[in-house]
Amino acid sequence: MGYLVTILYIVAFSMFIYGLSGLTGPKTAVRGNYIAAVGMLIAVVAVLIDIRDTDNWALIAGGLLVGVVLGVPPALRTKMTAMPQLVALFNGVGGGTVALIAWAEYLNSDGFTAVEAVPSAPFIVGSLFAAIIGSVSFWGSLVAFAKLQELLNKNVEKVFVSNAKAFQVANMILALVSIGLAVFIGINADGDPQSSLLIVGLLVAAGVMGLFVVLPIGGADMPVVISLLNALTGLSAAAAGLALNNQAMIVAGMIVGASGTILTNLMAKAMNRSIPAIIFGSFGGDAAAAGGASATGGTVKATSASDAAIQMAYANQVIVVPGYGLAVAQAQHAVKEMAALLEARGVEVKYAIHPVAGRMPGHMNVLLAEADVEYDAMKEMDDINGEFSRTDVAIVIGANDVTNPAARNDPSSPIHGMPILNVDEARSVIVLKRSMSSGYAGIDNPLFFADTTSMLFGDAKKMVAAVTEELKAL
Length: 474
Hints:
By secondary structure, the protein is of the alpha/beta class. The protein folds into 3 domains: about 1-75; about 80-280, no CATH class; about 295-474, Rossmann fold (3-Layer(aba) Sandwich), CATH 3.40.50.1220. It has helices at about 1-20, 25-50, 55-75, 85-110, 120-150, 155-160, 165-185, 195-215, 220-245, 245-270, 275-280, 305-315, 325-330, 330-345, 365-370, 380-385, 405-410, 460-474, and strands spanning about 315-320, 350-355, 380, 395, 430-435, 455. A 6-stranded parallel sheet has the order 3-2-1-4-5-6. Helix 15 (about 365-370) links the parallel strand 2 (about 350-355) and strand 3 (about 380). It is globular. The relative contact order is 0.10. The model is unreliable at about 285-295 (pLDDT under 50).
């Protein structure tokens, strides 16, 4: 049976790796998810075989049932607009689970004294590391969920952002407390019942640190924060696997940790910011930020669905720039219908995807794929930016910060240096927005005041549908 378990673990994490490789492209992403899910099922079966002599089958069955009941319905019912929140919440649950495992192992081993009769360094270090990082990830992910779900009062959120320096000091103190408690617990593993309070204190200190790390971070940085917390959860799972001597947890945790770290680094580069700058010097959520477009003294030009339709109908190339506004309005199907009409008239339609558009990595790709937009039509920022100067019409649907030319032109702007989509280089720009409110970064966009820009105000789905009707009438 021992050999069977080992073989199943090898098969499981091989499927994890193969499934992850499928996530590198939209065409293979669904298959990759299914392969990794089957791998996880095999890993669960391996664990059940490994603990076949246990007397706790009722608890195990109850835990599996609770997991299915709490996991499947939200995954089925959650709309794509709320997918970032769901990812943050599920990631947090993973971190919280690892923290609870570390706590349970501490209690089950009588304060690390009953580890096969001799205290084991990998067991102790792995458990304590998992306790700290898992707790940070859990509580930090809950804050990210609350921010994305807009459960936090905006005024309260601004207070957190504006007092980021104070939270930095508090986090340094909490980090020292957490590490100090971990070292003390590890060195003084004596099974004393009072020591149980120390592990609780460690979990609380790490949990508060998780809250204080994410609370001051502005909304514009949430995609990077989600990715970073995901990496931390993976590392904590690997540490727990080290403590439990479970190869599947070690490999799966390292895969998640490594891939999450790479993704976090790529997204940080896409914003031209370092990860420490995001954690310790965030922006976003403050409408009074510098670099406001209104300071340019420009005039906003409104347009109509009829004028927008005429511009696009007689264009050679149209580039659609999707943003979170498209997701909120669920306008992806309407955009697909509009694009089909344009293509029937001989207009080439492409989609410009910024790495941090939306609220999580790949958010726009998934939305457009849901509407059967061809994968080849979705162009990443580096591939599409050279096309804007040769484009007749760029239509921006709910994207703000990723099209803001202040990132190139205004050294005083908080986003200066961030790579953006060069929408302002198109011959004509049509921006669909409900109002002139700023984006998630809380700064104004000079693009809206440019001579080549026209604003089409209203709900994105309704306005796109109106443009589509006008195209049909031409």
